[in-house]
Structure formats: structure tokens, C-alpha cells
Amino acid sequence: MPNHLIQAGILGVGSYLPERILTNKELEKMVDTTDEWIKSRSGVKERRIAEPEMSTSDLALRASRKALENAGIGPEELDLIILTTCSKDMIIPAGACLVQQELGATRAGAFDLEAGCTGFVYGLTIATQFIATGAMKHILVIGSENLSKVVNWEDRNTCVLFGDGAGAVVVGQVHAGEGVLATKLSAEGSGWQHLYIPAGGSKMPADPLTLEKKLHYVHMNGKEVFRYAVRVMEEESLNLVKAANLELSDIDLLIPHQANNRIIEHAAKRLGLSMDKVVVNLDRYGNTSSASIPIALAEAVETGRIKAGDNIVMVAFGAGLTSGGVVLKWGERQG
Ligand code: UT7
Questions:
Q1: Mutate-to-test residue for ligand 1 from 27, 38, 41, 147, highest number of ligand atoms within 8 A of CB
Q2: Domain 180-329 is in which class?
Q3: Which of 45, 100, 180, 319 has its CA 20 to 30 A from that of 25?
């Protein structure tokens, strides 16, 4: 290990969204809801739905190939693959291992990370540590979700909000002064029952009764999650900016977890940011949980919305309850 820390940053980005679009109007025919309610309460207009035979690791693979190409590195150069998801392919093994196999990333370790919608910033934070110490050179961090397979399509409280998709980044060494400037991981486990899938694990193994009661689907206390989100999105962002030794006026772009327009607008307001400095795509994709930030980041890079020297704040909240974020200075080599 070197006796100084190496600067970690993002070398490449990629995303994948399934082609099938499910609009609010279509949802009106499925549950007791309206396009107007969904748009005004959440901001979602449509979302993408993965094909029945497509798993979370399949989505992850597609985003990962693009991220590797964008970074200009081959799969055999990867030291580690971290797949963040709360809609795993299977309980065991980790979907990251399926991605490793399909990519041919034969040198890489691989594991899944579950931190709800905060998963991607958790994964990016972990990757940063391995790069900083010199223990690893290239790490693939993926956020991938197949939430359409774990929501109850008869529950209007949840099914209208979520969507499927994947985003991925390659993390590696960048120039001094660029890359990851600050990270923060938090959790409030006291709120775990506000957003969870009750059955299918060791706490409540799946049986005919749990199936009948639909306990293997997402259960959410939306109001409590909303309250938590409004509080922590503001707190985490302010603390992150301070930890990065920046002023609020130094922020060029906020990439928040895409869950609800009202939560995003509140955070932007508290940071004194106009909405043109905030990346929002939940109108098109809904809440893609741990995939939402890497998808939004990849789109912002691809559309030229990010330029070298930009200070970017990524901040998220989710099941756990968890929250956290990463501050990045975008560099020449990144993306
Ligand atoms: O990534 C983390 C994932 N979770 C979240 O981000 C969720 C955070 N929470 C939220 O975004 C919001 O709480 C929701 C969008 C889920 C709900 O918005 P709300 O303003 O908190 O609505 P509410 O839950 O207080 O419901 C208001 C009314 C209720 O009817 P009553 O009791 O007032 O008669 C609900 O039954 O809206 C009703 N409602 C709906 N109506 C039409 C709930 N869902 C729907 C629906 N369509 N889909």
C-alpha cells in the first residue's frame, strides 16, 4: 500500500433503461388512481418496465458494458464489482457474480450491496476507499433495479411510483484535486418497517400464506418515508458540502435520488439552488431506487450537462432507513 492516499474518481459512466414504457394513463386502468394524482403527488409521468425474462443482473450487465466502454478499460482490468440493488436476482448468490461471469471480469471480486435507494452512494463510497489506499485500481459500481417484479400491482400506494433500470460507473484514480471530495453514509434502523419486503427471507420465510397475503412485495409507509427524506436530504447535502470544504455557491449540479419532485424541490431550495442546477428524470423513469443516481449521472454526462471542474453533489435516502451522499469534482478524464 502507498504511504499517501490516491485520489479516486469516476472514469466512465453508462446506463440502461428497458424499452417498454408504462404511462400513468395505462396505470389508471390497473389501479384506482389518476394521471393527475401521480403527477402532482410525485412528479412521475411514465416509467420503464423490464421484460418478464429480464433479471436485475441482465439490466446491470447492459449498463456495465457501456460504463466500461466509456472508461476505455476492459473487463479483465476490473478488481471488484459492487452491485447495489434491493431487487436481487436471487437470495443467493450475489447478482454481481452473474455480472462478473457475463462480462468476463475474471480478476474481479464481486458482491451485492443492499442499502435501499441509498445503495449507489454506499457502493461509490466503498469503492473510493479501495482506490484511495491503492488496494485496487478499477472498480465497477452498479445500481440496478427490477422493481416491477417486487411491487404489488394492486397496491396504488406503491406501484405508481417505481420503475426499472440500471446505471453503472467505473471508479479509479484521477488527478489530484478532482474526483471524490467527500462522502457520508448514515442509517436510522428504527425506521426499517417504513419500507420493506416482509416475506421471503429468514425473518418470514415464504410459504403459501405469505404468498396469499402478498407479503413478498414492497410495503411502504409513504408519509413516514417522505418526512424522513425531506429532513435528511437537506441535512446530508449541507454536511457534505461543508465536508468537501465548499460553499453552497460552489455547487454546479445536484443529482438527488429520484423519488419525488416535492422532496427534490425542497432540497434544492434549502441549498439555494435553482432547478436548472438539479438533475431530474423521475418524470420519465419513476423511482428506480439505487439505479436512479447513476442513471441521472450517465444522462447528464451524455447530454453534456457536466463539464470539467464542476462540483456535483449526489444525495440519497431509502429503505433501512438509510441516507448519504458523495461530492465529486468532475475532471477531464472522467466520463
Ligand atoms: O426511494 C424511497 C421510496 N419511497 C419514497 O420516496 C416515498 C416517499 N413518500 C412519497 O413520495 C409520498 O408520501 C407519496 C407520493 C407516496 C404519497 O403522497 P402523499 O402526499 O404523502 O399522499 P398520502 O399517502 O397522504 O395519500 C393521500 C391520499 C390518501 O387518500 P385519503 O386517505 O386522503 O382519502 C391515499 O389513499 O391519496 C390516496 N392515494 C392515492 N390516490 C390516487 C394514495 N396513493 C394513491 C394513488 N392514486 N396512486
A1: 41
A2: alpha beta
A3: 319
